Amino acid sequence: MSVFTPVTAREVELWLQDYSVGTLVELQGIAGGVENTNYFVTTTLGRYVLTLFERLERADLPFYLHLMAHLARHGIPCPAPIANRDNEYLGTLKDKPAVLVTRLPGISVETPDAARCAATGAMLAHLHLAGRSYGRPLANPRGPRWWRDTAARVAPFLEADDAALLREELRFQSLYRLPDAPRGVVHGDLFRDNVLFEDGRIGGVIDFYFAGHDVLLFDVAVTVNDWCIEADGRLDEARALALLRAYHAVRPLTALERGAWPVMLRAAALRFWLSRLEDFHLPRAGEMVLVKDPRHFRDMLRLRSAATRLPWPG
Amino acid sequence: MSVFTPVTAREVELWLQDYSVGTLVELQGIAGGVENTNYFVTTTLGRYVLTLFERLERADLPFYLHLMAHLARHGIPCPAPIANRDNEYLGTLKDKPAVLVTRLPGISVETPDAARCAATGAMLAHLHLAGRSYGRPLANPRGPRWWRDTAARVAPFLEADDAALLREELRFQSLYRLPDAPRGVVHGDLFRDNVLFEDGRIGGVIDFYFAGHDVLLFDVAVTVNDWCIEADGRLDEARALALLRAYHAVRPLTALERGAWPVMLRAAALRFWLSRLEDFHLPRAGEMVLVKDPRHFRDMLRLRSAATRLPWPG
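The joint structure predicted for all components is written out below.
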């Protein structure tokens, strides 16, 4: 949960003197999020979110902040970092790296219909296209190397059949590196709680702190695996097709991507199974994370591996 | 009026394919504004304003667009230009330089109270401070050189006493170049119709196409001369003090500026008297500008020159 480092209104008032956002009107801690401390900051000139980074390395933060600035200036409704009087996005508050970003309108939708899945698919394609002109490099921090490292660390805690499934999936995935698949900036975590809707339209896309460079289709698979499923993890064909068709209309999917789709859906399930296993068996000290059941993604991985027919546009 | 160059929904749809803002939902011409063609553009991902430039040189536009981008990323609620797939702000539509900027909420207020004057004063000070880290140079295009050039062009149309007033004011102003006064980026045209309020708070500051580098206090004077006056042009002390105090609280005004205040109020009246005279006597061909009475600013100049007591904070 998300006020790991409490700050007072007075501390924020002083800190805001380095910014051109007016003076503090209201400060409100945000519940939700498992990585950082977040506050809603309302000033005389606007509505912002203050984030104090609890996990990420300071050196990695410019990638994320400049990415959000880049996407925002391309029209993607994502949080735009605010520069301070020194023209810097990244500041320090309570000895933590800290940033002020714009606050976006809307709320997340737990049971999105096909229209919202389509809106999300189109937005993701726009995000991928806008990301093409983003210059800073950062490999997806939750990519294949992290899969292998994490698998090694969680393996001792697993039952034999889960360990076998994990081993087998890593072997399977290692056969598909897809050097020719379209790559670029991926959001990496476009779950339903990271898209805000307002009057049926997307008001915001948030939480870019798992972004990086990777196969674009992997990002689509992560999204479909959260947005277009039944409670048991099975794909809902109507919503999956709505999302994929809307994506395809903006960034046409290639024949190579069509071939890689089953692999990517499995890779996306694997990636979140691993992080759930890590959170479950190897929680970080002092964390107050609501640990989610890893079995959701294990079962999803089994379903995707066994699926004989997967929705695909066109 | 402001649709000099009509564009169709189909033309905008095609043009938007170079952007990451989704697809067109609604296109609506904007009445108001005398320089450019403006449309409200609503897409599946946001609300924008499309501007086709009718007067400004293409080479000058990057100054304005990057200024707005700079101020927006500092938290000033001004239109932020949207970059296209080539990562450029400036495009071409119907053979005109064209830009898409974010649309801001709120409406302008014709008879602002002291609270709104104060909000505007504070925002202007924040704008001046945020402008300090903006690197591109452009002298105020409506500065002293333009005063002299324009005065020479309109002089033949003036009655003798107006001509004498103008001559005398140019002479007076030439005595005060204020090399040590704080300078920086000025908005240059912060009239009431260029600030949008929403629920009593500033939702937007618009129309930066008269911005440039100049004495900051000149910008304050332009603002006070429009926001804090009676119908006859006389200053309203309560509103002027509210604006100045709020400005002073953010960017403290100096003793030198205190001394220059009467000169700057006259300079601001002169600048707009001249542009009104130019619009009145030398309208550009094909323009559909609502010509405003130049006498408002002539009378204001007389009032400011004769004033023995001018509001000042502290």
